[in-house]
Amino acid sequence: MKQLVLLGGGYGNMRVLLRLLPNQLPNDVEITLIDRTPYHCLKTEYYALASGTISDQEVRVSFPEHERLNMKYGNVTKIDTKKKHVLLEDGSFVDYDDLVIGLGCEDKYHNVPGADEYTHSIQSISKARATYEKLSNLPSGSVVGVVGAGLSGIELASELRESRSDLTIKLFDRGERILPAFPVRLSNYVQKWFDANNVEIVSNSNITKVEPNKLFNHEETIPVDVCVWTAGIQPVEVVRSLPAEKDASNRIVLTQYHNLPADEHVYVVGDCASLPFAPSAQLSEEQAEQIVKVLLMRWKGEQLPAQMPKISLKGFMGSLGKKHGFAYLGDRTITGRIARLMKSGVLWMYKYHNG
């Protein structure tokens, strides 16, 4: 019996499961999914969990069930591609014939002193829970600094404003305008929402050091009661230590078939994969679709296509609290309540089709 091992139950490997099960998995293949938690987590909603506007249960989706799907829970500590097994924190190991690495990412601190020690995170469900506990217990009038004004930072700051109107919120952005890669209209809309809702955007910021209750922006010292870091990500350490070619962001370089150049049995999906797009749930799912097709063809002994189709993304959507949002779809900017309803609808559809 061939063993397909999936590392991580994120968006990519969840899509692999849902495409292979229940009917496409060959009779001579078993799947083992290794994850830290007994459910799929909606990482795109961790900002709301940390802010306290949704419950823990709302970011969970059950994994599918199948007689040839085995679940194993634990932390992966090493991937040995020569011995073709995965070592877990408890000392056990799992052998594989084919492996899909989808272990996700963690915060990247850019060598800023104190950032890893004195900031909070939303990069895992356990860290988002801890951030929620810290933020929800703040006394009225406390100052929260959010470092990084990408999509995660914007959604966290806006959701926290709706959750805690009594807090002072500062969002630190390295650029001159927020979301500089997108049209000015979109940036202006987000800026005006923050202005109207009393969230301060600190533009052209450069956080050089973090100390307890202090942020150092250039030469200025800014008092904060809590700091949440959303200023960059990198693959988890077990992937960074894998002996494979990596790009400048430490993501694994792959063939067009999404496997290691030197090993056609090891695939990488999601935040750990070097692709010409920023990491996202949508990208992970599109990549997983192709991985499933490649796996099925290889298992059947069929010849792979000379050229895989290019991955095409539809765009992105973001929220500003529960009533407002923004989207960039097919070179079209959408703002306001319609954009927020669109995002809520996409989330509902995902839960409906995956839960």
CATH superfamily of the largest domain: FAD/NAD(P)-binding domain
How many beta-strand segments?
23
Residue share in helices?
A: 25-40%
Shape: globular
CATH topology of the largest domain, by name, is FAD/NAD(P)-binding domain
Q: State the domain count.
A: 2
The span between the termini is 28 Å
Low-confidence stretches: none
Number of DSSP helices? 9
Structural class: alpha/beta
Strand content: 25-35%
Largest β-sheet summary? 6 strands, mixed
- Average pLDDT taken over every residue: 96
Q: From the alpha-carbon coordinates, what is the Rg to the nearest angstrom?
A: 21 Å
Strand sequence of the main sheet, in spatial order?
5-2-1-9-20-19
Oligomer: single chain
Named CATH architecture of the largest domain: 3-Layer(bba) Sandwich
The CATH class of the largest domain turns out to be Alpha Beta
Keywords: FAD, Flavoprotein, Oxidoreductase
GO molecular function: NAD(P)H dehydrogenase (quinone) activity
Domain FAD/NAD(P)-binding: 3-281
InterPro entries: FAD/NAD-bd_sf, FAD/NAD-binding_dom, NADH-Q_oxidoreductase
Describe this entry's structure for a reader.
This protein is of the alpha/beta class and 355 residues long. It folds into two domains: 2-36 and 74-106 and 234-299, 3-Layer(bba) Sandwich (FAD/NAD(P)-binding domain); 109-231, FAD/NAD(P)-binding domain (3-Layer(bba) Sandwich), CATH 3.50.50. 28% of the residues lie in helices and 28% in strands. The protein is built from nine helices and 23 strands. Helix 1 runs parallel beside helix 8 (281-299). 39% of the residues are buried. One of its GO terms (molecular function) is NAD(P)H dehydrogenase (quinone) activity. Pfam families: Pyr_redox_2 (PF07992). Residues 3-281 form the FAD/NAD(P)-binding domain.
